[in-house]
Write a structure and sequence with these properties.
By secondary structure, this protein is of the alpha/beta class. 40% of the residues lie in helices and 15% in strands. It is globular. The structure holds pyridoxal-5'-phosphate.
Length: 393
Amino acid sequence: MKYNFDEPVDRSKNRSAKYDERVKNFGTDQVIPLWIADMDFQTAQPIIDACKKKAEEGIWGYTSRPDSYFKAYADWQKRRNGWTLDTDLCSWCLGVVPALAVIIKLFTDKEDKVLIQPPVFPEFFEITENTGRTLVQNNFLEHDGVWEVDFEEFERLVKDPKVKLFILCNPHNPLGRVWTQEELAKMLRLCFENDVLVVSDEIHSDIIFHGKKHIPAAIAVPEADQKIITCISVTKTFNLAGLQASTTVFPNMEMKKAFDAYWSGMDVHRNNAFSSVAMETALNEGEEWLEQLLEYISGNLDFIRDYFEEHIPSIKANIPDATYLVWLDCRALNMSNAELKKFMVEKAGLGLSPGSDFTRELSGFMRLNAACPRVVLQKALKQLEEAVNNLSC
Ligand SMILES: Cc1ncc(COP(=O)(O)O)c(C=O)c1O
């Protein structure tokens, strides 16, 4: 089937956080919302059909999870990434973020430190600090728009015996980096040598462009699967985040049991009736839609690159190899973070994610979500161009 991603979808009346929370976040609903990481596209038709069928059953009592559920994840990983994962070591969770928060609680102590690589997904800061652990930041090095890991600093940090856990964002949000085998191997080996547990958040691993290839951390070096915890989900891939489901793959039964016991203690252990069918259908029947989606978003990214280069050269757009999130370097506008947010809202009419949510070191950045019909991006960038031009008047 041919999908039409150009078709505008009105999400302003469907309880969408991206639209409904504009006033809370930006003080007005008069902004084009290009912030939270979901897409303004309908999901794949087989998923819609499966959920409709489920809705028409009219009974949504407690829902079991058949063996076929994790098998669908395993088949997906094997087919797309060459990873043979053991379904006995898979656990269900309400989402990647809740899974990460509980992993920190269960596998580190209060006085331990957790390593992250900013600029990075803001919840990594929040969940670490909410659990009372100390954050350790391996900030990226940037040179002329190229973002690289500071390996020297990484090595220094993992050698601190208090650093017990590293949250790897694979691929990386918001920098859109698809890690190479060499980069992964270097980080993992340093962690293994220093007894640092690695948790790899691979929620963005299906959204990859420019011929790059995602490497699951669990197969990046021999025996990594016996040491690493991996968080995966197809909620980002298929725009299903509101259904709240993720899968965690553990390196051993002991860790899996500890995780399951934690959630069972709160009676959280079953998918809801719709997430169960939606995830499985996505994994088994969603690839035709996904291939077309990737082509469309890739076109959006080309459009964004060209538009900034031609019309808004004072802002540098970091075109990602993974994710539909574009990291905007607005430092040449010479604004504080507060001024930049105000400018984007009041002058450009845009609801973007402030860069300051992703880093405590840098200022002058914004993140733009490119997963929307191109006509929305055209309007948004035109508004931004005019606002920037007006600055020099
Ligand atoms: C790196 C990363 N991990 C996790 C999530 C959210 O995961 P979930 O909705 O499954 O909790 C996001 C959402 O943007 C993300 O970017």
